[in-house]
Amino acid sequence: VAQGAFEALSYSFIPARAAEDLGLAADDARRQAVPLRNPLGEEYAVLRTQLVSSMLASLALNVSRGVPAVRLFELDKRFVPHALPLTAQPDEQPMLCLGLTGEEEDFFTLKGMVEAVLAACGVTGVYARSAEPYLHPGRQALVKANNVVAAVFGEVHPTVAESYGIETRIYVAEIKLDVLMQIKKRKTVYKP
Questions:
Q1: Confidence of residue 146 (pLDDT cuts 50, 70, 90)
Q2: d(CA 94, CA 75)
C-alpha cells in the first residue's frame, strides 16, 4: 500500500489451462495443480500453484474497463501437492504477487517495489537473470536471499499478455514470503 498499490483478492481456484497460458514447460512443477472434484466451472477447476495467472486476470479486467494505470498486490497462498493424486494435504506457501501497468510504470518501478518488500523484511537480496517463460526474455530478474530464490519479477511476455487480452506493457512479481520469513526472524518490541 505504501508503494501506491491496491489489494486484489481472487479465488484460489484457477482454470486448468492457466499453465498453458503462462507458457510453462511440460515438466514445470507448477503444472501439477490439484483438480477440484466439483468445480464451480472451467474457470475454477484447479487449486493455483502460482499467483501470476490471477494477477494477470485482475490486470486484464482493469485494462478492459479503461483504467489507464493500476498497481495491484495480492497476498495469498499457492498450493503445492506432494504427489498427484493427493495422498496428503498440499503445502500452502504464502506468496505476495505484485502487478502494475501504465505509462509511468516500467521494469525499474517494479524492481523498486520488490526492494521495498525485501527491506521491510530486513533481507538483502542478490539479483540474477531469470528464465520464466511468461516474462519477457530481456526484462526479467530473480532475487536470491541466502542462495534461495525469494522473488521473480519482470515485464510480461507480449504473447502471454495477449492471451489475457492485454495489449499494453504489464509487469508482475512473485515473492516467496516463507523464504523471506525464514531468513531473518523479526522480533516486535513494544515500549510505553
A1: confident
A2: 7
